[in-house]
Each structure stands twice: as structure tokens, then as C-alpha cells.
Design the sequence.
């Protein structure tokens, strides 16, 4: 499917412009499924070691975020996410690294609505020397494939993180090669 777009309102943390697309699946003229997705337009470039978002240099003021709440543990609600994001925006935070694991898809949707740049982490860390063991390659690649497939078209995703608590190893290089070649930016 293609649709020409002449002058879209671009997405950024300062102006989180979003659009809707709705797909209707019908069988023999009867609706069987409806999928609604929000999306945004943006262009990311690096020129002279400066990150350009829609042609404009950006400055990220960010945090590493665990999906955790003091009285709920890891069982967060949308209300918790909205409160978290609202407090971050009030503190002039505009970027989040999803520390060590994927955050829920709804959390990323809220980041798009509120205007947050995301450094999306491929969920594997603290595996130590296993990143040098070829037996782990399929499992780490699967995590990368699932993360990139889910989030590659999200306007808020600035870049990917490959787990920072691991030593360098062949598995890490294989994941990096996959992410670079997959359209994951």
C-alpha cells in the first residue's frame, strides 16, 4: 500500500504530531478485524557528529528508565506511565533509555503522544561471557528481531541500545550487524 504525502506535520519531542491509519480486514464483505495504528513522520540524520531531527540539531536530556513503581513493583498501569512522563516533561527531560528490557508497547505510544525520544534497548544484559558463546547467538538475535520488528516504525525511537552490561563478543557483533541491516536505523 502506498499513499502520497506532500507536507506532513513532522514528529519531534517538541511537536509530537501523530496521524492515524486504520485497516479493515473483510472476508466475503464482512468485517473480521480492524487494526488502528498511530504513526508520525520524521527524519534522523547525523552530520558533522551532530544528530539532526527533521534537519534540526537536537539536545537530549535523558534518563535510563526501569519500568518500576514503588508500590506496584513491575505491574504498572497507564496512570503510572502518564504520571512518570508528565513529571519527566516538567523536569525538561526529553529522552528515555529503556533500561535492560523492552517497555510495554503502550508506554511507547504514550512517549509518542507526550514527545519523548527513545533509545530502545535490545533486551539482553548481564550475560557476561555468554556473548562470546555461539550457542547464545540465536536467542540474542531473536530478541533483536522482535524488538526491531515491533518498534522500527515508531516515530519516537531515536536509536537502539544493545545492552551495556556485557563484554564485547561475537554475539554482540552479530546483533549489531542485524540491527544495522534490518532497517532499524
Sequence:
Amino acid at each position: 500500500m502506498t499513499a502520497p504525502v506532500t507536507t506532513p506535520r513532522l514528529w519531534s519531542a517538541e511537536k509530537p504530531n501523530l496521524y492515524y491509519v486504520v485497516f479493515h480486514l473483510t472476508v466475503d464483505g464482512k468485517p473480521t478485524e480492524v487494526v488502528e495504528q498511530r504513526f508520525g513522520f520524521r527524519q534522523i540524520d547525523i552530520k558533522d557528529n551532530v544528530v539532526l531531527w527533521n534537519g534540526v540539531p537536537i539536545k537530549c536530556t535523558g534518563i535510563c528508565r526501569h519500568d518500576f513503581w514503588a508500590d506496584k513493583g513491575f505491574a504498572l498501569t497507564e496512570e503510572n506511565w502518564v504520571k512518570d512522563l508528565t513529571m519527566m516533561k516538567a523536569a525538561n527531560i526529553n529522552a528515555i533509555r529503556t533500561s535492560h528490557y523492552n517497555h510495554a508497547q503502550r508506554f511507547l505510544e504514550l512517549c509518542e503522544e507526550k514527545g519523548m525520544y527513545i533509545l530502545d534497548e535490545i533486551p539482553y544484559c548481564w550475560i557476561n561471557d555468554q556473548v562470546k558463546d555461539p550457542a547464545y547467538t540465536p536467542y540474542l538475535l531473536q530478541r533483536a528481531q522482535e524488538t526491531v520488528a515491533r518498534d522500527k516504525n515508531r516515530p519516537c525511537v531515536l536509536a537502539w541500545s544493545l545492552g551495556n552490561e556485557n563484554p564485547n563478543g561475537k554475539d554482540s557483533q552479530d546483533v549489531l550487524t542485524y540491527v544495522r541491516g534490518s532497517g532499524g536505523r
